Amino acid sequence: MIITLTLNPAIDETVEVDGFSEGDTNRVVAIRRDIGGKGINVARVLKELGYEPLASGFAPGNLGRMIEDSLVDAGIGTELVTFAGETRTNITVVNRAQHSHTVLAAAGPAVPPEAVTQLRERLLRRIRSDTWLVLAGSIPPPLDPALHIELIAAVAERGGATALDADGPVVEAMLASPVRATLVKLNVHELARLQRSSVDGDAAVLAAARALQRRGVPDVVVTRGERGAIAVTREGEFRALSPAVQVDSAVGAGDGFLAGLLLGLKGGRGWDGALALASAAGAAVCLTPGTALCRAKDVRELLPRVVVEPIRERSHVRR
């Protein structure tokens, strides 16, 4: 089973404009609302690609119940903990004229201790030796990365695997601990913040990813938008080049990439096949408007156009 964990879910509201003028009135061309949060997005893409994931996490307030109902309606299993307060709403302003998007992200409600206890107990009952746990997205107050570290350790004790997709502070906290996620996925901006330096060009990205692997992370994947992805893994080092597409909205492309990657690894495609599926899924997300995710037919059509090439062979690296 692939279980996704979303500690800070959201309702994603996308507002599209033909051009954005700061400090002035802007005419809205289109508006849509989707359930969101990185783990939830990964679960939705997995379902679209034919896999049955489990979506776990928090779902506070009436909007949280709406998220749970939406997942159930989509045929996605859930293990969500509700509590008082209200799920946050994120607003994405898409500027069609400049093909850019600006995200206004809320912090989310404070999580009570009893909700954390309930989530931990429910989640750990699900972990088996063949389980992938995806820890993705931001952390609501007053929690900190300690919960991620605890869960990574618990999954490892049970023989499962973990994928961490989070910004610098969470990765830094993991690196400062004795535990390591099986897979760390970062975009190039997150990697730069983690390194506290620019990572322009293939050589810099590759060096930074290798540095993470030397610090004990078995598999490191860095996504770079239209420039593709670089992976430093126990099977070797790879460069994945995504097909060029007409971008409608890139929101959620990284989540689509991670879903495709895990599905490929879970399905025994090997790293080259998994990276190809991941790149096709990430590119397919870009074809849909706002915070909508990919369509399976687009992924199938894009998959033959992905190029995955080895950078060089590597000896086996122990977990």
Structure write-up:
It contains ten helices and 14 strands. It has one domain: 3-Layer(aba) Sandwich (UDP-N-acetylmuramoyl-L-alanine:D-glutamate ligase), CATH 3.40.1190. The C terminus is likely disordered. Helices cover 36% and strands 25% of the residues. With 319 residues, it is an alpha/beta fold. The longest helix has 16 residues. Strand 12 and strand 13 form a beta hairpin. Helix 1 crosses helix 8 and helix 5 crosses helix 6.
What's this entry about, in short?
This protein is 36% helix and 25% strand. The chain has 319 residues and is an alpha/beta fold.
SSE arrangement:
Elements: E1 2-6, E2 10-17, E3 28-36, H1 38-48, E4 54-58, H2 61-73, E5 77-81, E6 88-95, E7 100-104, H3 113-126, E8 132-136, H4 146-157, E9 161-165, H5 168-175, E10 183-187, H6 188-195, H7 202-214, E11 219-223, E12 229-232, E13 237-241, H8 253-266, H9 270-285, H10 296-302, E14 307-312
Parallel strand pairs: 1-4, 1-8, 2-6, 4-5, 8-9, 9-10, 10-11
Antiparallel strand pairs: 2-3, 6-7, 11-12, 12-13, 13-14
Helix pairs in contact: 1-8, 5-6, 8-9, 9-10
Total helices: the number is: 10
Mean pLDDT: 92
CATH architecture: 3-Layer(aba) Sandwich
Distance between the termini: 21 Å
Radius of gyration: 19 Å
Q: Determine the fraction of residues in helical runs and give it as a percent range.
A: 25-40%
What is the CATH level 1 assignment? Answer: Alpha Beta
Side by side, the strands of the main sheet go 5-4-1-8-9-10-11-12-13-14
Number of domain modules: 1
Secondary-structure class = alpha/beta
Spans of at least 5 consecutive residues whose pLDDT stays below 50 are 313-319
The backbone outline, from C-alpha atoms, is: globular
What characterizes the major β-sheet? 10 strands, mixed
CATH topology (level 3) name:
UDP-N-acetylmuramoyl-L-alanine:D-glutamate ligase
SSE order, as H and E? EEEHEHEEEHEHEHEHHEEEHHHE
The CATH superfamily turns out to be: Ribokinase
Q: Tell how many strands the DSSP assignment holds.
A: 14
Estimate the strand proportion.
Answer: 25-35%
